[in-house]
Protein backbone atom coordinates (compact mmCIF):
# COMPACT_ATOMS: atom_id res chain seq x y z
CA UNK A 1 0.00 0.00 0.00
CA UNK A 2 1.24 3.46 -0.92
CA UNK A 3 0.71 6.42 1.40
CA UNK A 4 0.33 9.99 0.16
CA UNK A 5 0.52 12.96 2.51
CA UNK A 6 0.64 15.76 -0.06
CA UNK A 7 -1.47 16.45 -3.12
CA UNK A 8 1.52 15.93 -5.42
CA UNK A 9 2.15 12.53 -3.85
CA UNK A 10 -1.54 11.69 -4.21
CA UNK A 11 -1.62 12.68 -7.89
CA UNK A 12 1.53 10.71 -8.68
CA UNK A 13 0.32 7.64 -6.84
CA UNK A 14 -3.09 7.84 -8.51
CA UNK A 15 -1.50 8.17 -11.96
CA UNK A 16 0.38 4.94 -11.37
CA UNK A 17 -2.74 3.23 -10.07
CA UNK A 18 -4.91 4.35 -12.97
CA UNK A 19 -2.23 3.60 -15.59
CA UNK A 20 -3.07 -0.07 -15.21
CA UNK A 21 -6.78 0.62 -15.74
CA UNK A 22 -9.63 -0.54 -13.57
CA UNK A 23 -12.18 1.18 -11.37
CA UNK A 24 -11.36 3.15 -8.20
CA UNK A 25 -13.27 3.28 -4.91
CA UNK A 26 -12.86 5.90 -2.20
CA UNK A 27 -13.49 5.21 1.49
CA UNK A 28 -13.26 8.47 3.45
CA UNK A 29 -12.54 8.15 7.18
CA UNK A 30 -11.18 10.07 10.15
CA UNK A 31 -9.09 7.07 11.24
CA UNK A 32 -9.21 5.21 14.56
CA UNK A 33 -10.43 2.35 12.43
CA UNK A 34 -12.72 -0.45 13.53
CA UNK A 35 -14.73 -3.22 11.87
CA UNK A 36 -17.27 -0.69 10.66
CA UNK A 37 -14.65 1.07 8.56
CA UNK A 38 -13.16 -2.21 7.40
CA UNK A 39 -16.59 -3.33 6.25
CA UNK A 40 -16.73 -0.26 4.02
CA UNK A 41 -13.30 -1.17 2.65
CA UNK A 42 -14.41 -4.74 1.94
CA UNK A 43 -17.51 -3.54 0.13
CA UNK A 44 -15.33 -1.15 -1.85
CA UNK A 45 -12.97 -3.96 -2.81
CA UNK A 46 -15.88 -6.08 -4.00
CA UNK A 47 -17.13 -3.24 -6.17
CA UNK A 48 -13.93 -1.75 -7.62
CA UNK A 49 -10.49 -2.82 -8.79
CA UNK A 50 -8.57 -0.37 -6.59
CA UNK A 51 -9.45 1.09 -3.17
CA UNK A 52 -8.19 4.43 -1.94
CA UNK A 53 -8.88 5.16 1.74
CA UNK A 54 -8.50 8.58 3.29
CA UNK A 55 -7.69 9.35 6.91
CA UNK A 56 -8.13 13.00 7.85
CA UNK A 57 -9.46 14.29 11.14
CA UNK A 58 -11.23 17.25 9.59
CA UNK A 59 -11.06 20.25 11.95
CA UNK A 60 -13.79 22.17 10.12
CA UNK A 61 -16.47 19.67 11.17
CA UNK A 62 -15.74 19.94 14.88
CA UNK A 63 -17.34 22.65 16.98
CA UNK A 64 -15.41 24.82 19.47
CA UNK A 65 -16.39 22.67 22.48
CA UNK A 66 -16.08 19.28 20.76
CA UNK A 67 -13.43 16.57 20.82
CA UNK A 68 -11.10 17.58 17.97
CA UNK A 69 -7.99 17.43 20.17
CA UNK A 70 -9.10 14.26 21.96
CA UNK A 71 -10.19 12.46 18.80
CA UNK A 72 -8.16 9.22 18.56
CA UNK A 73 -5.27 9.29 16.09
CA UNK A 74 -3.48 6.01 15.36
CA UNK A 75 -2.12 6.26 11.83
CA UNK A 76 0.37 3.39 12.08
CA UNK A 77 -2.25 0.94 13.33
CA UNK A 78 -4.81 2.21 10.84
CA UNK A 79 -2.33 1.92 7.98
CA UNK A 80 -1.55 -1.70 8.88
CA UNK A 81 -5.26 -2.56 8.97
CA UNK A 82 -5.89 -0.95 5.60
CA UNK A 83 -2.91 -2.70 4.02
CA UNK A 84 -4.13 -6.02 5.37
CA UNK A 85 -7.48 -5.34 3.67
CA UNK A 86 -5.81 -4.76 0.30
CA UNK A 87 -6.18 -0.99 0.12
CA UNK A 88 -3.95 0.26 -2.71
CA UNK A 89 -3.44 3.83 -1.55
CA UNK A 90 -3.87 5.68 1.74
CA UNK A 91 -4.48 9.42 1.42
CA UNK A 92 -3.46 10.87 4.77
CA UNK A 93 -2.98 14.62 4.40
CA UNK A 94 -2.11 16.98 7.21
CA UNK A 95 -4.31 20.01 7.82
CA UNK A 96 -1.96 22.23 5.79
CA UNK A 97 -2.21 19.90 2.79
CA UNK A 98 -6.02 19.88 2.95
CA UNK A 99 -6.45 23.53 3.89
CA UNK A 100 -3.35 25.43 2.67
CA UNK A 101 -2.85 29.01 3.83
CA UNK A 102 -5.23 31.27 1.95
CA UNK A 103 -8.01 28.68 1.92
CA UNK A 104 -11.22 30.77 1.94
CA UNK A 105 -13.95 28.40 0.71
CA UNK A 106 -16.71 26.63 2.62
CA UNK A 107 -19.69 24.78 1.27
CA UNK A 108 -22.92 25.66 3.03
CA UNK A 109 -25.65 23.01 3.10
CA UNK A 110 -29.26 23.17 4.27
CA UNK A 111 -32.44 21.12 4.01
CA UNK A 112 -31.41 17.61 5.04
CA UNK A 113 -28.81 19.16 7.36
CA UNK A 114 -31.18 21.54 9.19
CA UNK A 115 -32.41 19.27 11.98
CA UNK A 116 -30.92 16.67 14.33
CA UNK A 117 -27.09 16.73 14.18
CA UNK A 118 -27.26 19.86 12.04
CA UNK A 119 -29.06 21.70 14.84
CA UNK A 120 -27.02 20.08 17.62
CA UNK A 121 -23.67 20.72 15.89
CA UNK A 122 -23.85 24.11 14.12
CA UNK A 123 -21.52 24.19 11.10
CA UNK A 124 -20.75 20.46 11.32
CA UNK A 125 -22.26 19.48 8.01
CA UNK A 126 -20.79 22.49 6.22
CA UNK A 127 -17.41 21.16 7.33
CA UNK A 128 -18.28 17.65 6.20
CA UNK A 129 -19.58 18.82 2.82
CA UNK A 130 -16.50 20.97 2.19
CA UNK A 131 -13.98 18.22 2.94
CA UNK A 132 -15.92 15.52 1.10
CA UNK A 133 -16.23 17.78 -1.97
CA UNK A 134 -12.45 18.22 -1.84
CA UNK A 135 -11.92 14.46 -1.45
CA UNK A 136 -14.16 13.80 -4.46
CA UNK A 137 -12.21 16.34 -6.53
CA UNK A 138 -8.84 14.99 -5.35
CA UNK A 139 -9.62 11.31 -5.96
CA UNK A 140 -12.37 11.37 -8.64
CA UNK A 141 -13.53 7.88 -7.59
CA UNK A 142 -15.89 5.70 -9.56
CA UNK A 143 -17.62 4.87 -6.27
CA UNK A 144 -17.45 6.40 -2.78
CA UNK A 145 -18.48 4.44 0.32
CA UNK A 146 -20.07 5.87 3.47
CA UNK A 147 -21.75 4.26 6.47
CA UNK A 148 -25.47 4.44 7.26
CA UNK A 149 -24.31 4.81 10.85
CA UNK A 150 -24.00 8.48 9.95
CA UNK A 151 -27.31 8.52 8.16
CA UNK A 152 -27.82 12.29 8.10
CA UNK A 153 -24.23 12.77 6.91
CA UNK A 154 -24.87 10.38 4.02
CA UNK A 155 -27.99 12.33 3.06
CA UNK A 156 -26.01 15.60 3.18
CA UNK A 157 -23.25 14.17 0.98
CA UNK A 158 -25.74 12.84 -1.55
CA UNK A 159 -27.50 16.23 -1.66
CA UNK A 160 -24.20 18.09 -2.04
CA UNK A 161 -23.05 15.80 -4.87
CA UNK A 162 -26.38 16.23 -6.64
CA UNK A 163 -26.50 20.01 -6.22
CA UNK A 164 -22.90 20.60 -7.28
CA UNK A 165 -23.13 18.20 -10.24
CA UNK A 166 -20.39 16.08 -8.71
CA UNK A 167 -21.90 12.79 -9.75
CA UNK A 168 -19.93 12.99 -13.01
CA UNK A 169 -16.95 12.94 -13.37
CA UNK A 170 -16.04 13.68 -9.76
CA UNK A 171 -17.79 10.63 -8.33
CA UNK A 172 -19.94 8.19 -10.20
CA UNK A 173 -21.77 6.55 -7.34
CA UNK A 174 -22.21 7.17 -3.60
CA UNK A 175 -22.80 3.91 -1.74
CA UNK A 176 -24.34 3.62 1.73
CA UNK A 177 -23.23 0.62 3.82
CA UNK A 178 -25.48 -0.68 6.65
CA UNK A 179 -24.38 0.02 10.19
CA UNK A 180 -21.99 -2.54 11.69
CA UNK A 181 -22.81 -3.27 15.31
CA UNK A 182 -21.18 -4.81 18.37
CA UNK A 183 -22.58 -8.08 19.72
CA UNK A 184 -24.96 -6.19 22.03
CA UNK A 185 -26.21 -4.02 19.18
CA UNK A 186 -24.24 -0.83 19.88
CA UNK A 187 -23.19 0.80 16.62
CA UNK A 188 -19.43 0.61 16.20
CA UNK A 189 -17.89 4.07 16.45
CA UNK A 190 -14.43 5.50 17.00
CA UNK A 191 -15.88 7.34 20.00
CA UNK A 192 -16.96 4.12 21.76
CA UNK A 193 -13.43 3.87 23.12
CA UNK A 194 -14.09 6.95 25.25
CA UNK A 195 -16.61 4.92 27.31
CA UNK A 196 -15.79 3.55 30.77
CA UNK A 197 -16.66 -0.15 31.24
CA UNK A 198 -19.84 0.82 33.09
CA UNK A 199 -20.89 3.34 30.44
CA UNK A 200 -20.09 0.89 27.66
CA UNK A 201 -22.38 -1.67 29.29
CA UNK A 202 -25.12 0.94 29.73
CA UNK A 203 -24.70 2.18 26.14
CA UNK A 204 -26.43 -1.01 24.95
CA UNK A 205 -29.65 0.69 26.06
CA UNK A 206 -29.43 2.86 22.94
CA UNK A 207 -30.10 0.17 20.31
CA UNK A 208 -32.31 -1.77 22.74
CA UNK A 209 -34.66 1.12 23.48
CA UNK A 210 -34.64 2.26 19.86
CA UNK A 211 -35.88 -1.18 18.81
CA UNK A 212 -38.57 -1.04 21.51
CA UNK A 213 -39.69 2.38 20.31
CA UNK A 214 -39.84 1.18 16.71
CA UNK A 215 -41.92 -1.85 17.73
CA UNK A 216 -44.34 0.44 19.56
CA UNK A 217 -44.62 2.89 16.65
CA UNK A 218 -45.10 0.07 14.14
CA UNK A 219 -47.81 -1.37 16.41
CA UNK A 220 -49.69 1.94 16.23
CA UNK A 221 -48.47 3.81 19.31
CA UNK A 222 -48.53 7.59 19.28
CA UNK A 223 -45.14 8.68 17.88
CA UNK A 224 -44.69 11.50 20.40
CA UNK A 225 -45.39 9.20 23.31
CA UNK A 226 -43.07 6.50 21.93
CA UNK A 227 -40.23 9.00 21.51
CA UNK A 228 -40.80 10.41 25.03
CA UNK A 229 -40.69 6.88 26.44
CA UNK A 230 -37.47 6.22 24.50
CA UNK A 231 -35.82 9.32 25.93
CA UNK A 232 -36.97 8.48 29.46
CA UNK A 233 -35.70 4.91 29.23
CA UNK A 234 -32.30 6.06 27.92
CA UNK A 235 -31.86 8.38 30.91
CA UNK A 236 -33.08 5.66 33.27
CA UNK A 237 -30.57 3.32 31.60
CA UNK A 238 -27.58 5.57 32.31
CA UNK A 239 -27.54 8.22 29.59
CA UNK A 240 -26.97 11.76 30.86
CA UNK A 241 -29.06 13.47 28.19
CA UNK A 242 -30.64 13.04 24.79
CA UNK A 243 -29.82 15.59 22.07
CA UNK A 244 -32.65 14.29 19.94
CA UNK A 245 -34.85 11.24 19.38
CA UNK A 246 -36.86 11.77 16.23
CA UNK A 247 -38.83 10.05 13.51
CA UNK A 248 -37.96 11.40 10.07
CA UNK A 249 -38.76 10.79 6.44
CA UNK A 250 -35.99 8.46 5.24
CA UNK A 251 -35.38 10.54 2.10
CA UNK A 252 -35.94 14.17 3.05
CA UNK A 253 -35.19 13.78 6.77
CA UNK A 254 -38.24 15.94 7.45
CA UNK A 255 -39.40 15.34 11.04
CA UNK A 256 -42.53 13.19 11.32
CA UNK A 257 -45.22 13.07 14.02
CA UNK A 258 -46.90 9.96 12.62
CA UNK A 259 -45.78 6.91 10.68
CA UNK A 260 -46.11 7.63 6.94
CA UNK A 261 -46.68 5.07 4.16
CA UNK A 262 -43.17 6.03 2.93
CA UNK A 263 -39.93 4.70 4.51
CA UNK A 264 -39.05 6.42 7.78
CA UNK A 265 -36.00 6.48 10.03
CA UNK A 266 -35.60 6.73 13.82
CA UNK A 267 -32.65 9.00 14.58
CA UNK A 268 -31.13 9.40 18.05
CA UNK A 269 -28.17 11.25 19.54
CA UNK A 270 -27.54 10.86 23.27
CA UNK A 271 -24.73 11.52 25.70
CA UNK A 272 -23.30 9.03 28.20
CA UNK A 273 -20.32 9.78 30.44
CA UNK A 274 -19.45 12.77 28.29
CA UNK A 275 -19.49 10.78 25.04
CA UNK A 276 -22.02 11.64 22.34
CA UNK A 277 -23.36 8.55 20.57
CA UNK A 278 -25.61 8.52 17.51
CA UNK A 279 -27.66 5.77 15.95
CA UNK A 280 -30.47 5.34 13.47
CA UNK A 281 -32.77 2.52 12.38
CA UNK A 282 -35.39 1.97 9.70
CA UNK A 283 -39.06 2.24 10.71
CA UNK A 284 -42.03 0.74 8.88
N1 LIG B 1 -20.48 1.09 12.72
C1 LIG B 1 -20.38 1.54 11.45
N2 LIG B 1 -21.05 0.92 10.45
C2 LIG B 1 -20.97 1.38 9.18
N3 LIG B 1 -20.22 2.45 8.81
C3 LIG B 1 -19.54 3.10 9.79
C4 LIG B 1 -19.58 2.68 11.15
N4 LIG B 1 -18.80 3.53 11.89
C5 LIG B 1 -18.30 4.44 11.02
N5 LIG B 1 -18.75 4.18 9.77
C6 LIG B 1 -18.48 4.97 8.57
O1 LIG B 1 -17.09 5.11 8.39
C7 LIG B 1 -16.82 6.36 7.76
C8 LIG B 1 -15.83 7.09 8.59
O2 LIG B 1 -16.42 7.47 9.82
P1 LIG B 1 -15.51 8.00 11.03
O3 LIG B 1 -14.10 7.93 10.67
O4 LIG B 1 -16.07 9.28 11.52
O5 LIG B 1 -15.74 6.88 12.06
P2 LIG B 1 -16.81 6.84 13.19
O6 LIG B 1 -16.77 5.50 13.79
O7 LIG B 1 -18.09 7.35 12.64
O8 LIG B 1 -16.24 7.84 14.20
P3 LIG B 1 -17.07 8.83 15.08
O9 LIG B 1 -16.91 8.33 16.45
O10 LIG B 1 -16.36 10.09 14.77
O11 LIG B 1 -18.48 8.80 14.60
C9 LIG B 1 -18.16 7.10 7.69
O12 LIG B 1 -18.74 6.95 6.41
C10 LIG B 1 -18.99 6.38 8.74
O13 LIG B 1 -20.38 6.45 8.49
C1 LIG C 1 -16.95 11.62 5.95
C2 LIG C 1 -15.83 12.10 6.83
C3 LIG C 1 -14.59 11.27 6.61
C4 LIG C 1 -15.51 13.53 6.48
O1 LIG C 1 -14.52 14.04 7.35
C5 LIG C 1 -16.23 12.07 8.33
O2 LIG C 1 -17.33 12.89 8.57
C6 LIG C 1 -16.51 10.69 8.79
O3 LIG C 1 -15.50 10.02 9.05
O4 LIG C 1 -17.68 10.28 8.88
N1 LIG D 1 -18.61 10.08 11.60
C1 LIG D 1 -18.89 11.30 12.27
C2 LIG D 1 -17.83 12.31 12.16
C3 LIG D 1 -17.95 13.41 13.20
O1 LIG D 1 -18.59 13.19 14.24
O2 LIG D 1 -17.38 14.48 12.97
UniProtKB/TrEMBL annotation:
Pathway: Cofactor biosynthesis; (R)-pantothenate biosynthesis; (R)-pantothenate from (R)-pantoate and beta-alanine: step 1/1. It comes from the Bacteria. GO terms for molecular function: pantoate-beta-alanine ligase activity. Its EC number is 6.3.2.1. Beta-alanine binds at residue 61. Keywords: ATP-binding, Cytoplasm, Ligase, Nucleotide-binding, Pantothenate biosynthesis. (R)-pantoate binds at residues 61, 153. It is found in: Cytoplasm. Gene3D superfamilies: HUPs, Pantoate-beta-alanine ligase, C-terminal domain. The active site is at residue 37. ATP binds at residues 30-37, 147-150, 180, 188-191. It catalyses: (R)-pantoate + beta-alanine + ATP = (R)-pantothenate + AMP + diphosphate + H(+). It is an enzyme of class 6 (ligase). The reaction proceeds by a bi uni uni bi ping pong mechanism. Homodimer. HAMAP family: PanC. Catalyzes the condensation of pantoate with beta-alanine in an ATP-dependent reaction via a pantoyl-adenylate intermediate. Belongs to the pantothenate synthetase family. This is Pantothenate synthetase.
Amino acid sequence: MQTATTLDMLRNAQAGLRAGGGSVALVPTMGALHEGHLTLVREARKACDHVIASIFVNPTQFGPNEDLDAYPRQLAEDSAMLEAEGVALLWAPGVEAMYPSGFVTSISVSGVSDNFCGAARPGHFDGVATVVCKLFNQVMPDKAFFGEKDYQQLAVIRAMARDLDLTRPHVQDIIGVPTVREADGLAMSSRNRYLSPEDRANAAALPREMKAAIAAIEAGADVGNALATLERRLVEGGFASVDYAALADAQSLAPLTSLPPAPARLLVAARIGGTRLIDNMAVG
